[in-house]
């Protein structure tokens, strides 16, 4: 996939602005390790690997400035995990990107953002189940 790095993004889960949980869309905010590969800002499907447990989880990832809410240039890496609601704070994780879903947008309302994010998760599920998604899973396992 041209837009996704072939090596994982590694980092630590940190506290974000705390909006996601209130929106019913909790995300793990990742502080990437210095020098770790990161794709350009966009929404992606990918696999989240937790170092401590050795488990791998289905994920939809936002890399961007969250323009719906912020006017800063700071890039956030946020992961919505499809299959584990657990608290990941402080954990070391790796993100294995599978495919780009769409570009980041500035939505006029939170409802529009949530509609788009739910659709992203649906598309991400299919991408993770695709031949390429399963290949990435085999490489990291
Ligand atoms: C699947 C997904 C898609 C997202 N798409 C956008 C987007 O297009 N525009 C945007 O401003 N933020 C987007 N975000 C980021 C949200 O704004 C962010 O997760 C939310 O504000 C919670 O941030 P917090 O965890 O720092 O509180 C997306 C997040 C996810 C998980």
Automatic annotation (TrEMBL):
Q: Which keywords annotate this record? A: ATP-binding, Flavoprotein, FMN, Nucleotide-binding, Transferase
Q: Which SMART domains match?
A: Flavokinase
**Key word Cell membrane present in the record?**
no
Span of the secretion signal? none
Its Enzyme Commission number?
2.7.1.26
Annotated Riboflavin kinase domain ranges read 7-129
Q: Which GO terms describe its molecular function?
A: ATP binding; riboflavin kinase activity
Per its UniProt record, what InterPro entries does this chain match? Riboflavin_kinase, Riboflavin_kinase_bac/euk, Riboflavin_kinase_dom_sf
Q: Which residues form a coiled coil?
A: none
The record ties this protein, via SUPFAM superfamilies, to:
Riboflavin kinase-like
The record's Gene Ontology biological-process terms are: FMN biosynthetic process; riboflavin biosynthetic process
Catalyzed reactions: riboflavin + ATP = FMN + ADP + H(+)
> What's the protein name?
riboflavin kinase
Species name? Kitasatospora xanthocidica
């Amino acid at each position: 996939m041209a837009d996704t790095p072939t090596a994982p993004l590694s980092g630590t889960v940190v506290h974000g602005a705390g909006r996601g949980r209130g929106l019913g869309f909790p995300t793990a905010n990742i502080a990437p390790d210095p020098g770790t590969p990161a794709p350009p800002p966009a929404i992606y499907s990918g696999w989240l690997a937790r170092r401590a447990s050795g488990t791998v989880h289905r994920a939809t990832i936002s890399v961007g400035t969250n323009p719906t809410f912020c006017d800063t240039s700071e890039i956030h890496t946020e992961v919505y995990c499809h299959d584990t609601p657990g608290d990941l704070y402080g954990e070391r994780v790796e993100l294995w990107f599978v495919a780009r879903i769409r570009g980041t947008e500035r939505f006029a309302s939170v409802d529009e953002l949530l509609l788009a994010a739910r659709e992203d998760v649906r598309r991400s599920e299919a991408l993770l189940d695709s031949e390429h998604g399963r290949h990435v899973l085999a490489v990291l396992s």
